[in-house]
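hey so i finaly got around to running the thing on Odorant receptor from Odynerus spinipes. pasting the sequence first so u can double check i didnt mess up the copy paste, my clipboard has been acting weird all day
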Amino acid sequence: MDRAIDVIYWNKKLMSALGLWPHQRNNLWFAINFVYFTFLAVLGYVDLFLFIDDLEHVVMNVTENLAYSQVFVRIGMLWKYNDQLGSVISDMTKDFDERRYESREEKQAFLIYNARSKIFVKLLSAFVGVTAPLYFFTPLLASLSKGQPRVETGNVTEILYQLPYHFHVFYTIENTRTYFLTYFFEMPFVYTAGFGQTAADCLMVTLVFHICGQMSVLAVQINNINVDPCNCKKDIRKVIEAHVRLLRMSKKVAKAFNATLLAHLLGAMTLICVLGYQILTVIIFPRLYGNL
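ok and heres what it spat out for the 3d tokens, dont ask me to read them lol
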């Protein structure tokens, strides 16, 4: 049971990276991250508006902006419902006391769901930790290995400085120094977006699996109730109180993450449509994208 509580410590580290851990909030650090993230996200939509006539550019921009809009909602909901989530986490921590479980069967029922939540946190953290930096550094590594792409317009050769994200830049990048400074300015976006997505999803799944585990424990307790009418009142009262407690926790979790799930649903559906369009375009016009 001592190792089972590790999942709470992992969530604490993820949320503290944005200053959002309910029991140790850092409003200044959160404000810095949130304002920075919002500013660049707005620049993404500015870029979309300016290149609205370029269909290929719009498709790439929408693909990115939908993902970042979902992260924006995740971070916003973690901040808005921080106090409610803090109360759920405090209540959840009590369930890691071995004295709350009367049998090995109850403990095992809880640990099964706890193990699943730990696996999810590990996999998602590793996935985002690899893909987010890789996506960010790909244009830079390509330019260092192959050089910057060039476009010839008449007798003029123009160098295209490729940045990792489709954010509007208010100035012209004409040399390597400006390019690297711009690239460096966008680097913290990887940190904020990565932790914003990971912290929200990991906390939601951890809380859901925890409630499921406690429901499983409750089912075991119901099966083990003493059927003797003279001795079952205490057991029945205990089961009812535990059920009411879990219902209250689940309502708080649902309220905190309903907007996040809605944004994820709408964003995922739109991304599927965009990716389907890209696949069909590659199949129909293979010469524009290279042979399959």
